[in-house]
Amino acid sequence: MKKQIAFAILVILGACSDKYESLYNSAPSPGLSFNKDTVVIREKDYVNINHSDNGRLVFYCSSPNTDLNLQLSDTSGKVHIMYRGVDVVNIGPLPVIDSVVVFCAGDTAGIYSVDCLLTDRLGKVTEKELIVKCFANQPASANFFFIALGSTQLQNWPYVIDGSLSHKDNGIIVSYHYSINGQEILTNTPVMNYTFHARGTHDIGLFVTDDLGLNSDTVHHQLIIP
Question: Are strands 38-42 and 125-135 parallel, antiparallel or unpaired?
Answer without folding.
Answer: parallel
